Amino acid sequence: MPDDALVDIERRGRVLVVTMQRKAKRNAVDRAMADELDAAFNLLEDDDELWAGVLAATGPVFSAGSDLRAGGDYVTQRGGEYGLIRRARRKPLIAAVDAPALGGGLELVLACDLVVAASSATFGLPEVARGLVPTCAGLFRGPRALPPNLARQLILTGEPIPAARAYEVGFVNELVGPGEATAAAIALAERICRNSPTAVRACLAAVGELTAGDDAIGWSATAAATAAIRASQDAEEGIRAFLERRDPAWTGR
Fold first, then answer.
1. pLDDT > 90: percent of the chain
2. N or C: which end of the chain has fewer CB within 10 A?
3. 81: annotated active-site residue
């Protein structure tokens, strides 16, 4: 990969490891990074020699989600937001989370099929602390993947939960030590790849049809929530305060 690549891709036999490496920006996704993620996931879907994928990250944050300076310019043709959120996938994808996954970072994890997390990881949706709402499926994939009351807690408080709590409620499949998530996720992907890829894809499609059948309703509800705050003073103040590194002064308007 080029030295300045924002996303690294590595073949490990039948497994493609996709690693976000925009460490200086907490792996926040902008146009360039979205395009690199999209290319990586296109490769995973289109290469018949690849049977499973792992999404990992380097640095002290798994991903902080959207780069606010990108102005929403991180949508790709095949994958939607971040090259992944609305992607129609046939092959299993495992999130390897060694550090905080926040906002769109958690929504990236929610877009995966399985989650391996280190004890050092946390999961949160801090959008309300910035006068915003989760726009990349967190409002409906969160309550689907987590107990509804816990999902509401994440959404309404903006406060993260530790990986141990996420494991306790069944969101995290495997809980490992700090720095071990990627290796454990690759090992899990390799276990999946011992099976018939045709059978695995058929099972994944069936589970997806049963669990994601209400996505259209979820996206409609998300659009309505986004529209409700788009022109609000609180949304403008939240983003301004975040960029200026100060506490927001809410008006409720």
1. 90
2. C
3. no
Domain count, the chain: 1
| CA 169 – CA 157 distance, rounded (Å) | 19
Name the catalytic one among 45, 127, 174, 180.
127
pLDDT value for 72: 87
Domain of residue 101, residue span: 7-211
Indicate whether 80 pLDDT > 80. yes
Distance CA 2, CA 107 (A): 27
Given a cut of 90, whether residue 213 has pLDDT beyond it is no
**Which residue would you say has higher pLDDT here, 96 or 68?**
96
State the catalytic residue, choosing from 36, 107, 174, 180.
Answer: 107
Pick from 99, 98, 119, 97: which is nearest to 109 by CA?
97
Q: Is residue 225 in a domain?
A: no
Is 140 a domain residue?
A: yes
Q: Is the pLDDT of residue 1 over 80?
A: no
Strand-by-strand arrangement of the 15-20 sheet? 7-12, 15-20, 52-57, 93-97, 114-118, 174-176
User: How are beta strands 52-57 and 15-20 bridged, if at all?
Assistant: parallel
Is 92 inside any structural domain? yes
What sign results for the dihedral spanned by CA atoms 44, 30, 127, 20?
A: positive
242 located within any domain: no
- 127 noted as active-site residue: yes
Q: Which of 248, 246, 253, 249 is nearest to 229 (CA)?
A: 253
pLDDT value at 65 more than 80: yes
CATH of the domain at 195: 3.90.226.10
